[in-house]
Design brief:
The chain has 283 residues and is of the alpha+beta class. The protein folds into two domains: 4-175, no CATH class; 183-277, no CATH class. Helix content is 44%, strand content 12%. It is built from eleven helices and eight strands. The strands form two sheets. A six-stranded antiparallel sheet has the order 2-3-1-4-7-8, sandwiched between helices. Helix 7 (182-200) crosses helix 9 and helix 9 crosses helix 10. It comes from Pseudomonas hefeiensis.
């Protein structure tokens, strides 16, 4: 049975007296989250985004639940690993809040205003990190987790932390220097761009939302940024704000890239032309 290995892992760590946790991607598992919430006491779960600067995203953020091996909801998750619902962790008894606090400190990556959320709760992100990290980096990545169990594409993997405990966040975390999958990069950009527009251009963003689905518009704009390779902070912010202000959110023909232009030359040409037409001096 495909779920026999994680079940044995759960039983082993239960016998050792550890607390067992499900790290759940509640954005894609809302029904399971509600079921677990209904069957849990207040001290048996925490929202990771709660009590952080992204608390407004709690409903779409990860939750951590303490569970038992025989829980029917846990068995259901183990039966469908391909749905990428999250992963399992074993921590010292009563240390579930420490696990949540560990990830809260690693949640926001980048510098303002170009911050993003690290999707640690995605089993694919965890699996990739553990596949590339040296063992000596496991403690700073896994923190109080004694061991983790996760689906890695075609099979279950279990990884032990050699030195579980509280670790400071490194100045240059190795797990943030791994290559990012295109789908994951786009999801991060979508969240980041949405938060940027809410913070800096709320009125214009709200007006756009009255005319069309802002998520569809945002995805199309980010697709354009990707096509032009305008993914650095300056050109991406420029494209977002100018697209928002353009009549009917349609950019003028001179915005199109020319065959002989590099992305930097393209951006600089359009930026200078826009400043000239808007009556501003070049920066």
């Amino acid at each position: 049975m495909t779920h026999s290995r994680p079940y044995q892992w759960l039983l082993t760590h239960q016998r050792l007296g550890h607390t067992l946790c499900v790290v759940l991607d509640s954005e894609n598992e809302r029904q399971m989250r509600q079921t677990l919430l209904k069957n849990s006491r207040p001290h048996q779960y925490l929202s990771v985004y709660g009590q952080t600067m992204v608390a407004d995203l709690c409903d779409a953020g990860p939750f951590v639940f303490t569970v038992n091996p025989g829980d029917k909801n846990v068995n259901e998750l183990l039966m469908r690993p391909d749905s990428d619902w999250g992963w399992l962790a074993s921590v010292p008894k009563g240390h579930m809040p420490m696990l949540v606090e560990h990830w809260r400190k690693r949640l926001i990556i980048g510098d303002r205003p170009h911050q993003a959320l690290y999707r640690f709760h995605d089993n694919r992100v965890l699996a990739k990190a553990l596949r590339h990290l040296p063992v000596e980096s496991y403690p700073s990545y896994l923190g109080p987790a004694i061991s983790v169990c996760y689906w890695r594409g075609a099979c279950w993997e279990c990884t032990d932390n050699p030195v579980p405990g509280t670790c400071p966040v490194p100045d240059f975390p190795l797990w943030l220097q791994l290559p990012v999958a295109p789908q994951q990069a786009m999801k991060t950009r979508l969240i980041n761009a949405h938060r940027f527009l809410l913070a800096e251009h709320l009125q214009a963003y709200a007006q756009l939302a009255e005319q069309q689905d802002p998520q569809i518009w945002l995805r199309a704009t980010l697709d354009q940024a990707e096509a032009w390779n305008w993914l650095a902070p300056a050109p991406l912010e420029f494209l977002l704000t100018q697209s928002l202000q353009a009549p009917a959110q349609t950019l003028a023909p001179h915005w199109q890239a020319r065959p002989d232009e590099t992305p930097d030359e393209h951006f600089e040409r359009v930026r200078l032309a826009t400043q000239s037409w808007q009556g501003g001096a070049p920066q």
